[in-house]
Task: structure prediction
Amino acid sequence: MKKSVSLLVLLFLLMDSVLAQNNNADFFKETYRKGFVTNLGDTSKYQKIFFDAFPSNFKDLKKLYGWNEQTNTGRPLTNIPATYFSRFFEIKSVSHKALTKKIIDVSVNAKWYADAIARFQLDAFKYAITYNKEFIGQLQARSKADIISVWTFYFDYVNPIYRKNAYDKIVKATAPNSKKMVSLITAGYKNAAAKWRTH
Result:
């Protein structure tokens, strides 16, 4: 009897977990739509809700937007539209400071994956160029290992020409703001290049 009850409880917990994941994806889709796509009076409110619920680290981002390596299938939000993150990166309902912090938090120890993760990577890199002074200012407060991991993620491309072009762009934008950061950018670039040499 105890075994049956335990199995029943385990089954309910598993079902609840699956439903929560689907509801979580639906929640993100709906708040994104209301915050960034529709043009109603409460868009700012939904942008803030979406931002607050958005993952704060790469592990959580990957659960929603990445790939399942065992089954080689996408997660609930893997196939988001190309405009999805670009709108998020220009969010008006939160401060640039808060947005920059979240971008950096998600980028620490991140890895390239196709589709949504690659889109996040590209838009995060563009943000680091566009708002370079603020981005570098916040990034400098992190550990050396975290800083290098962020740059490694931003250069995590299979194509070496694309990687080198990205490196040149970020060094050009960053050197006037922080010469010290350039050596950490270079370390991240070398890490990414080494990774793809072994793949």
Observations:
- Residues 4-23 have pLDDT under 50 and may be disordered.
- The CA atoms of residues 100 and 135 lie 6 Å apart.
